[in-house]
Amino acid sequence: MIRRAKLEDVTEIVRLSSQLGYPVSVEQGRSRLERLLDNPEHAVFVYETGENKLGGWVHVFGKLLIGLEYAEIGGLVVDQQSRRQGIGAKLMKQCEDWARDYGFSQVRLRSGGQRKEAHQFYKQIGYENIKWSQVFCLNFRNIEY
Question: What's the DSSP call for residue 86?
Fold first, then answer.
């Protein structure tokens, strides 16, 4: 069953995030999820597999730029033990429906170069790679003012 995430899902969302190599504490996860749940320009959907158990989650948000409006996937993870069962495709479809409902003409996502299996998955569900890019970061914690 796919539904909107609730704050009570944070432990499972954190567990799944660590499977992708993004470990966060439950406190960090709770803080981040609270911000997203309170923002109508973002949606987090979960795939519920049983009582207090999630098979995956996806985050989608809208981007409004001059002359370009699209929804972007902020993250998608399916439990390692539940992959290749259609959960990821169902979660992505939910995001596509959300994007259409909000008037966006596209859904975009970024996927790390090392995630070859993810790239194959996205191609299989109809996405195409439209460009290669590099990601640059300025970490405020490393700057003294």
Answer: S
